[in-house]
Amino acid sequence: MRLIPTALLMLPVLTACVHVNVHGDPSAYATEKKIRVATYNTSLYSDETGGLIRELEGDSAHARKIAAVLQRVRPDLVLLNEFDYDDAHRAADLFQHRYLEVAQAGGGEALKYPYRYLAPVNTGVPSGLDLDRNGQAGGEGRSRGNDAWGYGLHPGQYGMLVLSKYPIDAAAVRTFQKLRWSAMPDALRPIDPASRGYFYPDDIWSQLRLSSKSHWDVPVRTPGGTTHFLVSHPTPPVFDGPEDRNGKRNHDEIRLWSEYISPGDKPWLCDDAGRCGGLAGDARFVIAGDLNNDPIDGDGSHEAILELLEHPRVMRHATPRSEGGAEVAAVYAATGIEHRGSPAHVTGDFGPKAGAMRLDYVLPSTGFGLIGSGVFWPPSGSEEARIADGSDHHLVWVDLSVE
Q1: 274 CB-near residues (< 8 Å, 6+ apart)
Q2: In angstroms, rounded to a whole number, what is the distance separating the alpha carbons of residues 95 and 175?
Q3: Is 3 exposed, middle or buried (0-12, 13-18, 19+ CB in 10 A)?
Q4: What is the per-residue pLDDT for 361?
Q5: Cα distances (angstroms) measured from residue 261 to each of 225, 257, 365
Q6: Neighbours of 215 (CB within 10 A)
Q7: Span 263-289, pLDDT tens digits
Q8: Residues contacting residue 171 through CB under 8 Å, at least 6 positions apart
Q9: Which whole-number Å values give the CA distances from 368 to 11, 166, 222, in the listed order?
Q10: Residue 76, CA distances (Å) to 37, 99, 166, 202, 314 in order
């Protein structure tokens, strides 16, 4: 890995002439000295072990659209959610070499990322426990998925992939795949409303993992110094019962980042290598991912996402927006699905029951200068719209000054 020159590390962060691109045009500010950070739930997953590999070995129209969006937006650092993990990293290799590094229709020039990070996740990994309380541990189909440490039909389903144009300090990466949910102070332990007792017995509760996939702190050596890329994909706060076990888990998965960036000793917050404590107070970071929680609308508890958005170390900035999202939200509103949040802020279309919501976030820390932001969701009828339907989520990006 190459070293960043000392002169670059000493450059101050730009704070003057900060302006926000409210139209979601990722080609704006091309002459600014910046780093573009993004998150994108790609829906590149399969219900079958090795299914994504087989799809990418062929000619996947789905993958070509995802690659085209990335080529159009061209982030310097990006998290891909719902990208199946395999131990040999075969899917990541195929996607990079056969799709990103080949110019796609509607996209742009070939896009190369010399650095990446991926690691095992909890989805699909058998727990050996009866987590859904249906009387058996494991089973087939959804029953097997419900009893995994994170819901999934095979290990690695719905995984994560970080791609970077800048070196990743792999030795300093922290993962929290195995952090116990019960270790978190004041964890929201689910209650069975029928019995008014705990949904999970003590012996199961003491073993449960907090992350439905994983939480990663990935240090990236950008031209402005080290930036900690804090990435995750909490469980959706649905697909459960009146005990709201997924809703409470979603809340605490989001809350983990608030704990991680807050001051104070945290002997309970231990990573998979056994190192305990949160992020240094002077470290710069970007929190990114499909957090599966809208600040105002939809299912789930909104307290944790609001706490994160309002955290003193998180930059206050205009919410990324798009024309396409506002258009779709207006269509839903006309059918009676009205939300209280701004239509322009939504990041995905989740069907006639949920409508359009803001679930995907790129949250820089204070200490950066903001240049622009947006959601790649072009209006219908535009040329760009032809590549924007590869996922029910849309890419969110933020431009940050690095000098």
Answers
A1: none
A2: 24
A3: exposed
A4: 98
A5: 18, 6, 10
A6: 24
A7: 999 999 999 999 999 999 999 999 999
A8: none
A9: 12, 17, 12
A10: 6, 17, 8, 45, 20
